[in-house]
Amino acid sequence: MARAYPSIDSVESAEVRHRDEWHTLLELAQSLPDEYSIYHGIHWARIHESVALYGEIDFIIANRYGRLIAIEHKAAELESDDGRLFAVYRRKGQTQRKDVQAQITRNLSALRSEFDRRFPGRHMDVDHILYIPRTRLAGVRPMGLAEGRVVDALETRSLAQVLIATFDERMQPSGERLADPLEVHEFLSQKASIAPEVGLIGEHASAL
Question: pTM here?
Answer without folding.
Answer: 0.84
